[in-house]
Design goal:
Layout lengths: L1 E4 L8 H6 L8 E4 L5 E6 L3 E7 L8 E6 L2 E16 L2 E17 L10 E5 L2 E7 L13
Antiparallel strand pairs: 1-2, 3-4, 4-9, 5-6, 6-7, 8-9
Length: about 140
């Protein structure tokens, strides 16, 4: 994240400093890395995750499942340019990545897990792995 702020140089006249910039709007530009916002729902058989990742292609999204730990990451490339005639007034670019990891209560069956990306929302269906039943040992 970076912040740019235009500041005037110190003037020795305190009365002049009092009114300097009074009618002038300061120049500020802020940019921050996008964050992945999520909703996680659970039922008896599976977890459903909806992650907002707007402005990326499905090829730039990566999902990793390691037992009950889920990691989502995306490579983000944004470019915008504002022109008036042939003069470029503003050009902004952002290249970076966003990621989010979380741990669920139950292990996930990664062989039947599904992912779908539509209109900037990644939907994950993460079936719970069947719990191993307790086994009673016979003493000989």
């Amino acid at each position: 994240m970076f912040n740019l702020t235009r500041r005037e140089q110190a003037n020795l006249d305190p009365f002049d400093n009092l009114f300097r910039g009074f009618m002038v709007k300061p120049f500020q530009m802020e940019a921050s890395a996008p964050q992945i916002k999520m909703d996680v729902k659970e039922d008896d058989k599976a977890y459903t995750v909806h992650a907002d990742i707007p402005g990326v292609t499905k090829d730039s999204i990566h999902v990793a499942i390691d037992k009950n730990r889920i990691s989502i990451s995306a490579e983000i490339k944004k470019e915008s340019e504002e022109k008036r005639g042939e003069t470029v007034l503003r050009s902004e670019r952002y290249f970076g990545s966003a990621s989010r990891s979380f741990t669920l209560e139950n292990e996930i069956d990664e062989t039947t897990a599904k992912a779908k990306y539509v209109d900037g929302v990644l939907e994950l269906t993460l079936p719970k792995k069947a719990a191993a039943s307790a086994r009673r040992l016979t003493i000989s």
